[in-house]
Structure formats: C-alpha cells, structure tokens
Amino acid sequence: LLHQFKHQRENGLRMSQITLMDNLMSADGTILFPLTLALSFIVSRLLTPIAIVVTTCFGIVDSPDDRRVHTGEIPRGGGLAVFGGVIVSSSLFYSMVDEECLLQFDFSWWKIFSLTSIAVVTLGLLDDIFSLSAKVKLLTQIVIATVIATSYGHFEYLIGLDLPVYVDFPM
Fold first, then answer.
1. Cα–Cα–Cα angle for 79, 83, 88, nearest 5°?
2. Phi/psi of residue 143, each to 5°?
3. Which of 23, 50, 66, 147 has the fewest CB atoms below 10 angstroms from its CB?
4. Longest CA span, the chain
C-alpha cells in the first residue's frame, strides 16, 4: 500500500489522497488507522449489550424452530452496535486529522457512502424485525451496490488505490 502511494507521489497522481495518507502515518509518529479500528471495536463491544437490551425489549429476537440450532431466544440487531462503532470511530478519526489536509481531500464520496451505509443498516434492521425474503434482501443490496459503483464512474475514485483494469472499469 505504501509503495503504491510512493509511486503515485512520484507520478503526481491523487495528491490529496497521498497527503491524507502522509498526514495519518507521519509527523509525530501517530498512526490513526489502527487506533480508529481499535476504537470501532471497543465502541461496538460497548454498544452490543445496549443493543441486546433494546432489541429484546422490542421483541426483536430470533426464536428457535426446526431450522435453528439454538434453544432459546437470541436478540437480533447487533448490526446497530457495529454501525454505531464505525460512526463514532470515523467521526473521531476525521476530527484528529489535520484540517489543512482535510481541505485538500475530496470527501464528496462520503455522502453517497454514508447514505448507502444507512440503507444497508436499515435493511438489516428490517430483516431482523420482519424476516425479509432472501430475494428482497439480495435485490436491495444489488441496488445499493449499484448506487455506490455508478456514483463516480470508477471504483478507484472511491477507495483511492490503483486497481487492475478488470476491477476498475468505467461505469
């Protein structure tokens, strides 16, 4: 990954993304990526018992039947705790990055990513409550993925890495 960024720096490609990466992994030696991942895990872990209590109170549980292996009711809605962890850690991550660096970076993709992430979490919650059919879930996920993929013309723009041509095709 770092080799790709050095190569991009030499060729003058996506300087804003390179600057962001340099900012995250330089200067005072702080590496924010692992801290962000750790915070996401910790917050998700702390939110999980809350999600269990809330979903149990609302009756959002998986009851045993002939297709299930468990013998008691299992709370659903764990995706909410994971999503909460990602949101908290991402927000903290962006607040810790140098403001000058953030101004150089194009975050327009974040709007689409945020909205589609909320759509995926909502789909999961609706599935937990109403047990949606596999066809409905698959169709909805295809629509959401298509929105992300077609929003910027190239996958490369979304993640900021050079991808092989067979993966990074224009939409």
1. 150
2. -60, -45
3. 66
4. 61
